[in-house]
Amino acid sequence: MANCSTLAIPITIVGMICVVITALLGFFYAPLVDPNSWNAPEAYRILYWHVPFAWTSFLSFCLLFIGASSWYVKRSESGWTMLVIGSQLGLLFGLGVIISGPIWGSAEWGVPWDWGDVRLNSYALLTSVALFLVMSIRSQPDGQETRDTLAAIGLFGFVLVPVTAVATTLWREEQNRKIDKEVLT
Asked: Cβ distance 119 to 167 under 8 Å?
């Protein structure tokens, strides 16, 4: 049986090749959309990156939550490792969302950021928590008190995941109500 560490590099390379192929297909082979339904019909292609970034960041924050919980319950080193990796991945994919969203928003809505949109702002806060965790883990002395504090902040960050998901659902419902109201008038 092969050692897991000897498989890590080939699996990572295959994964990166799949990411590149998927990205290229999203930009160059994406199905066409009705140009009358979108303000910027070509800009929708960025959603093939944006949405997977968002879902993957939520999964990363789940990893962070499991790690933080494991750290508190068992003082487990593997829990701390999951917290660190979850925060790093949450930052990576969160930045993907924060960068790709305003590009699409600029083209489709005419503004890169809507400060009145709760889902955008809660997601930005979620990514900021990941940034804070990554920077703190790298800059603070490693010890039980530091780990306890950062795990608590990680648990707070995870609470923002359902808040953002609910905000997205409520925002979509509100947008549909506005559209229905405009159609009726």
From this structure: yes
Here the tokens at position 94 are 């969160």
Task: Using alpha carbons, list the distances in angstroms from residue 64 to 86, 123, 146, 152.
Answer: 4, 16, 16, 11
Task: Please give the Cα distance from 79 to 102 (Å, whole number).
Answer: 34
Domain count, the chain: 1
Tokens of 12: 């990572």
15 found inside a domain: no
Mind listing the pLDDT tens digit for each residue in 2-37? Answer: 455 677 788 778 878 987 887 788 777 767 677 777
In which domain, by residue range, is 177 found? Answer: 44-184
Q: What is the CATH number of the domain that holds 173?
A: 1.20.120
